[in-house]
Amino acid sequence: MGNKIDNSLNIDHSGICSSDDGLIIPEVGSWAERKYKLVHLYCDLFLKGIRHSWNQLVYIDLFAGSGKAKVRNTDKILAGSPLLALGLANKFDQYIFCEENEGLLQALQTRVESEYPQVNAHYILGDCNKKITDVLKLIPTPSRNNKVLTFCFVDPFSLNIEFDTIRTLCAQRYVDFLILLALSMDGVRNESIYIENNNQRIDKFLGLSEWRGRWKNEQIKGKSFRKFLANEYAQQMVTLNYKEESIKQMLEIKSDEKNLSLYHLAFFSRHSLGYRYWKEVKKYASDQRPLFED
Question: Tag placement on the chain: N or C end, fewer CB within 10 Å?
Answer without folding.
Answer: C
